[in-house]
Design a protein that fits this description.
- It is a single chain.
- By secondary structure, the chain is mainly α.
- The chain has a domain of 52 residues.
- 74% of the residues lie in helices and 0% in strands.
- The chain contains 4 helices and no strands.
- The longest helix is centred in the middle third of the chain and has 23 residues.
- The radius of gyration is 28 Å and the shape is elongated.
């Protein structure tokens, strides 16, 4: 056993029983993350992001945002004197 593993086991042995629940949960979540990375499986959030990016389209049309804003202001405030 490595020094780091020995230190971890020693810390766990000294920990009160009621706090071990949190340690087990933490270890399970870390283990799940490493399995996802190794197997190449993706989390639901990663899959959702990929779906959104797949449907995203780039436009070839250049938009002059300042001109659009000026036009919208003129239309909105043309009746105010």
């Amino acid at each position: 056993m490595t020094m780091l593993q020995e230190k971890a086991v020693d810390m766990i042995c000294r920990m009160p029983e009621e706090k071990l629940y949190y340690v087990v949960q933490l270890l399970e979540s870390v283990e799940g993350l490493s399995e996802n990375m190794e197997n190449g499986t993706k989390t639901p959030a990663q899959k959702a992001l990929e779906d959104l990016q797949r449907f995203r389209k780039r436009s070839d049309i250049e938009i002059d945002y300042k001109a659009e804003l000026a036009k919208a202001r003129e239309e909105k405030y043309e009746g105010i004197d």
